Amino acid sequence: MNPEIGAGVLRGDPGFPLPPAGGGDPGKLPARPGGQPAPRAARKTGLWVFMAVVLTLFMLFGVAYVMRMAYEDWRSLPPPPWQLWLSTALLGASGAAWELARMHAARGQWPRARSATLAACLLALAFLASQLWAWQALVAMNYPVAANPSNSFFYLITALHGVHLLGGLLVGGGVAVRLAQGARGERVETSILLCARYWHFLFLLWLGVFGLLFYVTPDLVQAVCTSLGIPRS
């Protein structure tokens, strides 16, 4: 497909509407009746592209984290404080609330969708608060940001995840406000669907981050490299 067409599809540009499900000329994308683009499909595609970029970013940080373990000044993090387990539960509950909102919106049960959306946003705020609490707990345990490279990676990666959740929360909060104002229909239903999908992605990403930071140790990396025949200094 022409790159200009692909960019126009992600922007929702009326000049670059999406092709019909039955196929068609990939170089000339026909519009829907009335000359309007297909915003639902374009928004879904845009989210998938964004999540792929975010995943790539975190994978690069993960590779850097593992590579940095080879240096002698590396000190592993302590067992995760209970606040991080609370954070995990809160983020999972927030994603579940978004999923409930999606189901209610698909059935046209808008009051329930509004309540579930509000609950999802409040749980996400509680997740961020729990993350800050976990940071304070680690500092109190003498693991400040500059004490060791592993500490720096912890604060950097968890902060990066929190920023991406905060961005999603701004969008989710907007959806909650629109529902409270009586918004209904396909557009708001699509917004709820995309928020639910993004929250599931953030939860899986958090599980990966959690496992990387606390359960991927130099000994584990050394054992894996040895089993694969990869020398490590």
- SS content category: mainly alpha
How would you sum up the global shape?
Answer: elongated
Strand content: under 5%
- Over all CA atoms, what is the radius of gyration? 22 Å
Q: Catalogue the unreliable spans.
A: 1-31, 33-37
CATH third-tier fold name of the largest domain: Four Helix Bundle (Hemerythrin (Met), subunit A)
Number of domains: 2
Q: What's the oligomerization state?
A: single chain
Largest sheet: none
Number of helices: 7
Distance from N terminus to C terminus (CA atoms, Å) equals 46 Å
What is the CATH homologous superfamily assignment of the largest domain? Cytochrome c oxidase, subunit III, four-helix bundle
Helix content: over 70%
Q: Mean of residue pLDDT? A: 83
Task: Tell me what the CATH architecture of the largest domain is.
Answer: Up-down Bundle
What does this 3D model show about the protein?
This protein is an all-alpha fold and 233 residues long. It folds into 2 domains: 1-37, no CATH class; 43-228, Cytochrome c oxidase, subunit III, four-helix bundle (Four Helix Bundle (Hemerythrin (Met), subunit A)). 72% of the residues lie in helices and 0% in strands. It contains 7 helices and no strands. It has helices at 3-11, 39-68, 82-106, 110-140, 149-180, 186-215, 218-228. α3 (82-106) runs antiparallel to α4. The radius of gyration is 22 Å and the shape is elongated. The N and C termini lie far apart (46 Å).
